[in-house]
Amino acid sequence: MINSTGWKQLKPGKLMPGKLRIIDQTKLPGEVVYIETDSAEEIYNSIKRMAVRGAPAIGCAAALGLGAVCQHSDAVSRDEFVQEVKKTAAYLNNSRPTAVNLSWSLNRCLKKIEESAETDIFLLKELLIEEGIEILNEDCNLCKCIGEHGAKLLKDGYGMLTHCNAGGLATGGPYGTALAPAYIANENGLKITVYSDETRPLLQGSRLTAWELMKNRVNVVTICDNMAAQVMKEGRIDIVIVGSDRIAANGDAANKIGSYGLSILADYHKIPFYIAAPYSTIDPSVENGDEIPIEQRNADEIKRGFGKLTAPKEVNVYNPAFDVIPNELIHGIITEEGILRPPFKDSIYKLLKNKK
Hints:
By secondary structure, the chain is an alpha/beta fold. The chain has helices at 40-48, 55-70, 78-93, 100-115, 121-151, 180-187, 204-215, 228-233, 259-268, 300-303, 344-355; strands spanning 2-5, 19-23, 34-37, 159-162, 193-197, 220-223, 239-242, 246-248, 253-256, 273-276, 282-283, 322-325, 332-335, 338-340.
C-alpha cells in the first residue's frame, strides 16, 4: 500500500512539501514499519531491496517518489527543471528491470511535464505531484474493477491458489490484483479458501499474502511451493489466479519465479489458470515472453535467506526473480475492463486501443 504524506497547503490548492510513505515489506509479518522519504537514493534502494514490491506498487511509489524528490529542485528555468526530472526518473527506472509499471508510471509523469506549457517552477512541481497522486488513485480504482470481474469466476466453497503477493501490499491498495477477486467475493458473502504458496526464496506468499488475507478475515492456508501439485491432486484447488509484472503483446506473462511451473501443474490437473493485472502491466512493445527482461537477484537470498546460512558459502547460485507463463496455458487475463480471452493478441490490442 502506497500513499503520500505531509503535503502542506502553502497557497490555496497547493500540495507541497511532502514525502513518499510506504510500508517496509521486508519487516512483515513481524512488525509494521513505515518509510517516509523524499530522497532519490532511499526510494531507489526501497524498490531495489523490495521494501516496496509488486508491479503496480512499484509504479505508484516511483511516481510519487519522483514528485517528492523534485519538489526540492533549485532549478530556475523550465528547461532546467525538466532535465532534472528526466535525470531522477532515469535513475529510479534502473532500480528493477522486469515490472513494466515502473517505466510506465515514470514516463507518464514526464509526459505530463513535457506537454505542459507551464513555466512557473512551483506549478510544474505541483503538476508532477498531482500526476503521481492521480496514478495512485487510478490504480486503486482499477484494482477494485479487476476484483469485480474476477469474482464472477469464483463460487461458494472454492479453493483458489495464488503465488507470491498480488494483494493490497503489491498495489496502491487495498484490493490488489490477483487477490482482488477473493476480497470482492468475501465482501459478497462467498466462503472461499485462498491457498497461498510460500514463494521461495523471499517468502512473499507466507510473509505477505497470508498476513494481509488474515488481517482482512479471508480464509487462507499457506503451503510450501513444492506442495502445490499434491494439493491440486487432492481436489482442493478450483482455480489459480496470479498477478503479473509484465504481459507481452501475445499474452505471455512474467510473474514471480515458480508461476510457470504452477501453470503446467494447473494444465495437467485441468484447473483454470488466470492472470490478474491492470492495463499498465501490458507492454505492447514486447512481442512475446522471450523478450521480457528477467531480473537476476543476489545469491544471498538463497544461500543466506533471512540471515541464516542455508547452503555452502561458496556454492554457485542461479536466482532469477521471474519466469514467463506461456499464453497457451492462460485461460484469461482479468483486467479492469473485463476478462481477456484467447487469442490474446487480438483481445489485448482491442483493450489498449480503447485506452487511447
